[in-house]
Fold this sequence. Notes:
CATH superfamily of the largest domain in chain A: Pyruvate-ferredoxin oxidoreductase, PFOR, domain III
Distance between the termini of chain B: 64 Å
Shape of chain B: globular
Largest interface: A-B, 75 and 64 residues
CATH class of chain B: Alpha Beta
CATH architecture of the largest domain in chain A: 3-Layer(aba) Sandwich
Radius of gyration of chain A: 27 Å
Low-confidence stretches of chain B: 252-260
Number of strands of chain B: 13
Shape of chain A: globular
Mean pLDDT of chain B: 89
Helix content of chain A: 25-40%
Oligomer: heterodimer
Strand order of the largest sheet of chain A: 11-10-12-13-15-14-21
CATH topology of chain B: Rossmann fold
Number of helices of chain A: 20
Radius of gyration of chain B: 21 Å
Structural class of chain B: alpha/beta
Number of strands of chain A: 23
CATH topology of the largest domain in chain A: Pyruvate-ferredoxin Oxidoreductase, domain 3
CATH superfamily of chain B: Thiamin diphosphate (ThDP)-binding fold, Pyr/PP domains
Mean pLDDT of chain A: 96
Strand order of the largest sheet of chain B: 2-1-3-4-8-7-13-9
Number of helices of chain B: 12
CATH architecture of chain B: 3-Layer(aba) Sandwich
Strand content of chain B: 15-25%
Low-confidence stretches of chain A: none
Amino acid sequence: MSSNITYNELVIKFANVNGSGSASANTFCAKSLYRMGIPISAKNIFPSNIQGLPTWYEITISESEKLARKEKVDVMVAMNAQTYASDIDEVASGGTFIYDNSIQRKFDRDDIRVIGIPIAKLCAAEYTDQRQRQLFKNIVYLGGLSLLIGIDIDVIEKLLSEQFKGKQNLFDANLKALTIGRKYVADNIEYPLDKQVRKCNRNANKIMINGNEAAALGALYGGATVASWYPITPSTSLVEAFEKHANKLRKDKDGNINAAVIQAEDELSSVGMAIGANWNGSRAFTSTSGPGVSLMGEFLGLAYFAEIPLVLFNIQRGGPSTGMPTRTQQSDILTCAYASHGDTKHILLLPSDPHECFEFGYKAFDYAEKFQTPIMVLSDLDIGMNDWVVDQFKWDDNYSHDRGKLVTSEDIEKLKSFARYRDVDGDGIPYRTIPATHPDYGSYFTRGTSHTDTGGYTENGMIHAEMLDRITKKFDTAKEYLPHPIINLNSPKSKIGIINFGSTNVALNDAMQDLTRNGIGINHLRIRAFPFSKSVVDFINDHEFVFVLEQNRDAQMKKLLISEEDLDTNKLISILNYDGMPLTANFIVNNITEIINNNKNIKAANSPPIKIV
Amino acid sequence: MTYIKKPIFRHPSLPTNEIGLTYRDYEGVVSTLCAGCGHDSITASIIDACYELSLPAHKIAKLSGIGCSSKTPNYFLNNAHGFNSVHGRMPSVATGANLANRDLVYIGVSGDGDTASIGLGQYCHAIRRQLNLTYICENNGTYGLTKGQFSATNDKESKNKKGLDNPFGAIDLAIMAIELGAGFVARSFSGDKEQLVPLLKSALQYNGFSFIDVISPCVTFNNHGYSTKSYDYIREHRSLFGELDFIPEEETINTSYAEGETVTIKLHNGNDISFKKLGADHDPTDPHKVLNTLRNNRSDGKVTTGLLYVDPDKSDLHDTLNTSSKPLNSLSMNDLCPGGEELEEINNQFR
Lengths: 613, 351
């Protein structure tokens, strides 16, 4: 073996058949690496299917924190003969291709190392039960891999012992499979590989969690009591996580639950229930993906116009139509911003990772009540369903829920009058009562038809127009309260900026390092909410050229910026990706470099960052 | 017009109910429906029922979908919050509202277009869930606001105002409700207050899903000679399932029926429904027999009215979901937010 050993900078990819039990073994691998303190990111690339189709799991390991997906893989664990051909193509020169050589195969690449482990034969010799033979193949390759790249066996063992706590049989069987894999490699294969892992201490204050679970915990902390939903990939696990945590953390002294989770008959019903519960003073939410948002359109317009709080998590997937249900995209921006017929406009929150899913998850309920309107939290499949290593969650016990202008019985007793839709304070936000507030005051009629400021039906055009204008004013008021953008002016002299949002941030951070090294200085702004903060407009005005990076075909965020703000539209340059995969840094670097090199005006606007790495 | 307020004038000698309110306290704004509309009679019966039960109006939530019928919640119970939602979707809004506060009384008003066509799915699923809601379908067999199209409850081959035949069969919402497991199913006629008010009172007291299909003639589009939902047709073709009386818990003796002819059904809250048998074989607690009778009457061209079916022992959605006995909307942040220390524990689950 050469002595060119590197540590904690490699990409491992597992190629499996779905439904074969590989998911847990692959997750064990990622979790072990996380527990070794190494910065990682993990991506599950799975089919919309239960059993038999190809599925992949990638782990990017990078102590230098360049954690975006890579085009090339250093170690491929190829457990699916159907995809050998494409899997071996993905291996980087000098990399390793591990396969089950129970059936010998010849591969025509001489720039990589091919390692065969007779996994099926090893399992056939050890187990008699067919199901066990299949399941433990996954643990056998994990064992082999652990020796090849140096995953700490104690860490894996501890993980297994936690996973199978109280199930000694299962623990023993898994440990045996792990040992079979390790022993085969120890006896037959030259190890370790050049690319190895070793402990470092970078994850002390970090947790490994997916965005859907994080958002569910956010909703729980945000005081949500009603969750109504309809199953749809990739949002399903959000409400399931909410229910799991609520059953534990919301149990009252009688053993009943301080929450109601209800699976509706469709998305129209799920959003209708959430609206009904919010109208009646509970904090309620629904969770869905693109097709569900399309179905919810009419109700979203009602909540907008009748000014009913609502929180909707949209875990975006590949569209249009049924599209790619198990791939990621940011292609519901315009659909959500303007959901429903007539003049409607909705507040969007744009988390970039599970940490923000938690934070926006509870804040969304404050915004919904404060502004009495739907709040849509736009996550995506990459954030929602993949495990991310992020800063641990924090909670300030001094924080209290902001119920906005919710009028109590005592308030109304003093006022003795109440107009549901009147702008009393000049901020466009009216006062709100819930049913049964008071026997004599505060009742009103909620309707989607045009209404007066007391809620009465009207066909008076002036009153209708005034109502719409007040709602616009309310929308403008929201700008200063919503999460502000994150701005990084690392190249103060550069006239080039880039705007992004959501899950593209990991790849963009990686790309910025590469661009910096190449002498390209770009300032960065990450949008976190719509309506846009004034600082978004300032950022665009302060730069001559601004790239807008997004994962959709139609440049939806760019269009939203142009339609909502008074901007010099010629300076906005789109960088678009819509193949459904999490972005790579190279994609961004190549696009930006090419555009800059091909346009002398943009080239002239470039000024290298102050600190060249 | 709905924005015209009724003058607040009360005759000093108006009788009051147990909580000191008069009939006028249960009224709403002036109806904008056509003069003679069956829906206005139903509104009057709802007001009677709530007054007679001495329900505090502000503890009632009235919800509806879209259509002539769905306008009516504005015409009763001014002190109750109302919600005129979107077409066919009242059941989901009512479900959410009920989950938020299990202590209120929920009245859902819908029509035949709203229920039997666009909202059929939500209707079915609200029944499946045993939502504690009194669901009133003001059934006139026609689309009024869009001027006279057939609805899905209109009988096959009955004619519209232009004399054209309805080519499709009718959906019987009451039969459907029984099939789907509704705990309380009744049918009545908007013009029969004596039957409708006790039915409404029983339904409002029922813990679970109660459905009343009220045939309510549309004087403008479906009250002509060929209609099977006209005043004349219904009066001629009605088959009464029995006379009904609602007896609050404290009134134990019902003198209006002779013993031996009545069936008394005790509801969960202790109140009784006393039911006078007309047909010797009618037992409103036996769904198989009830369905049989309903189908037979239907094929004989009869519209069966009265308390069709009741199951006094159904549990409601909150029991199924195991929700807290306190209304969810009354819980404080302390009840709901697990706090910083617990979050540390949660963080540890993800290490």
